[in-house]
Design goal:
- With about 90 residues, the chain is mostly helical.
- The chain has a domain of about 45 residues.
């Protein structure tokens, strides 16, 4: 999945260019290009800066996803397992 936030760094309609994003993060443009095509993902540090830049929380930004099924939660998995034999 390619990284491409749907917000705008300047608060107006439209989107920021790779160069603008790179400049705001103080990095080269190559990583931004790689994020957009899904070749790599932003580091934790860059994701945090991008969230602030685009005024998005982690869920809006796609860092965390809504849990699809409660059956796959760690708690339900642990509860469904038999206790260990003595």
């Amino acid at each position: 999945m390619a990284f491409c936030p749907s917000g705008s760094a300047d608060g107006e309609s439209g989107s920021a260019t790779q160069a603008q994003i790179a400049q705001a993060l103080r990095i080269e443009t190559k990583p931004v290009s790689q994020w957009e095509v899904g070749k790599t993902k932003p580091s934790y540090k860059c994701r945090a800066k991008l969230q602030k830049l685009f005024k998005m929380n982690a869920e809006e930004f796609g860092v965390i996803e809504e849990q699809e099924s409660s059956d796959s939660s760690p708690t339900s998995i642990l509860q469904s397992q038999s206790p260990l034999p003595p």
